[in-house]
Amino acid sequence: MLDINHSNSESSLVSTFGTPAFIKDLSGQPILQAQLDAIWNTYLFAFVEQATPSDDAYFYNPATTNIPSGTASAAVTWNAFPGRLQQYFSATTPVEPSNPYNLSLTQLRELADTGSYTKDGQSQAIQDIPAVFCPEADWGGTLNPFLPYGPRGWQDEYCEWAVQKNDDDKVTRVDFACENPEYWHALWAVSPDTVAKIYQDTLNFDAPANCRITVSVDDLTLKDANGHAVVDPVSGHPVYNPLNKWNNSPIANRQNSTMNGGVMHLTSTPNTLQTEIGLAGFSTPQYESGNGNQQKLICCGQFGQAYRHSDPHIGQTVNQIVGGQFISGQYFKVNLANPFGLYIQQPTSLDSWTFSNRIQKGVNVPADAKASDVWQIVRGSEQVTDPVTGSAFPGNFILHAICQIPSSWLAMDPTLTLEDIEINNTPIQWGSQITEQIDIGLFARPLSASEAPPQVPCAGPSLPGAPLQAMHQHVWDAYYGINETNPAGSELSLVSNSVIVPTIVTTSATVNVALTVNKLPAGVQPTVKVLTGTASGDHDTKISVSIIDKTTVTYAVPGNSGPGTYTSLSLQIEAEKTTIPGLRAVEVSYEGAQPQTMASLLFIAPKIKGSNNA
Questions:
Q1: pLDDT score for 1
Q2: How many Cα atoms are found within 13 Å in the side-chain-facing hemisphere of 229?
């Protein structure tokens, strides 16, 4: 296995970034855990560089910034129920304007669980929404299909869930996950067997014997059009399929021989960690719109998605911390606190959950049973110690939680379901009823700044040729060749559910890379160069790049809510043996236009004798 943490003094990465919730999935295999830690640290360093809007931004890199001992973190939280479903479909919208659909609370809960709802006895697919939402949603203009697409695309608050029901259509279990897809790609690169085992252990947690599943590496493997496993040229492992049979649906089917579905990590295209960090970085500039109104700020800054609970709230909070509005007259640089991630918070209403009349303590449940016992933490933990302060963070670090009847209760009464548990005196009939009780959170760590940040104009559109994503060409081809459907009936290429992580280019080899860029004007012949990684930003003369092909592609670049049309450049990259290893930016230019650059798209690594790396 290739350790991608090779570096020189000019591009060195310190071991700053812990895995989510400081979880150690390979703790029993220290060599593999060290490899995972190195990969994860490199990913996070890359994400921070990509999220930094400018050299003078009030957004710091924890790997290169001294953080004084005792510097506190701050929790930023939002509700996990999809805000955009409430805004575009509910009869009671969070803010103006209202929508024409006027769904009842029951219909809205069904929509959140399944992507469709019942109207006049018929199933109604998720409907169209305004194409224009700045300065506000324009219901009088063009309507487009609801997005994000995907099997759980509408669950876009960095929390996704899957509902399991019995033959009587009663809810027996709901799994909630906020784990980012990038971590699972990193873990898979080190040990696919471990990924399969964690899937199986998590989805079987305290489950009845007849609902248990067996998860194999093959179940989680990306296959090409001929059904053959696609192989990663670096690790030699098969490539991970994030929308595999156990992570591709809001429904967990555990009732027959063709069991499938469930949730292990986030799949909605904007639900990525790289996006979350980017949102934090690009919400630090003090835009001319001010930050008193979330909608005005997000439209001016062009970060995130309007009407989500998450993006506008995160952006406004970060902007106010930086700008001196959060603490009057005090200015801060910000970033997330280590360990970076998104975390489920304990439902504050747990103590008020109650039993239905069917439950009798000491008869069909243990005498000491509580209704809140149905809430079970499987991955992550309630408390994590902050290494900077030595005290617990001000919130929870739950990665995967389950709501289900404990097996000890089922041994006493196998007919019990979650409908026998009540929230606000209402039986649980939808997973989304529980989602309404959950917050998702991140933890920011502000550092004092000596002066006020300058005001800047509203953000402009991204320019043609701007690099967006890179991956090995044959992996791109395999992802792009698979289409996924969703309840709205819109197909989307599986590459939309890939990740933006540094693509490894090994020295002394020719590596074929697919580079996605903002759509280039017709007839343009671009030039692609790799930068040195030093502060000067010079082109690296030891790395040659040839453009073999140029095609137009349509997909949702990971982190985006909807698909767009882009240019895909097929590159051949050759790095000399003496090329200095480390993270590198990629520059795209063409005559008459300003060169466009994206940081940390590539990682230059020496070829290791006897390894599988390309």
A1: 33
A2: 13
